[in-house]
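Repro:
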Amino acid sequence: MRRIILIGYMGSGKTTVGKALSKETGMMFYDLDWYIESRMRKTVSQIFAERGEEGFRQIEYNMLHEVAEFENVIISCGGGTPCFFDNMDYLNQQGDVVYLKATPETLYKHLLMAKVERPLLKDKSPEELIAYITEHLKERTPFYEKARYTLDVNVLDNYDKIAVSVERIKSLLSL
């Protein structure tokens, strides 16, 4: 029985790496946000709009406790998941947690393309976005750094580099 749990700031590539790792290992892949959307039959944006961040985080907590009980899975958590309640301690108890670490500049590039989809980012100008990422990452890093493993993903900009990251995770976890 194995659980690999990917954490990191939004835009760090958790879903991309998780899918690629799933394909390599044959383990099932679950993106926690997608799981929440499937179970709640609403998008994360809709849940944020209806219940606010606090309401979303409670739902996220409950869904995390469901999906983290599955066996032989790879789970991609939302960027804030490790930072609320006792989630980070719980994740470390449930499996091998890998922090996908990226600089604010790398995250900015990744998020600039998808900011409309991100409830916490959708109304920010480019300048506000980089400032927000930098500040927010400082707040979240202490939680992320509690992961057993850390992988620098600043190079995740093409499929060859994604494959390298997958191989590095497999090596870290002796897969």
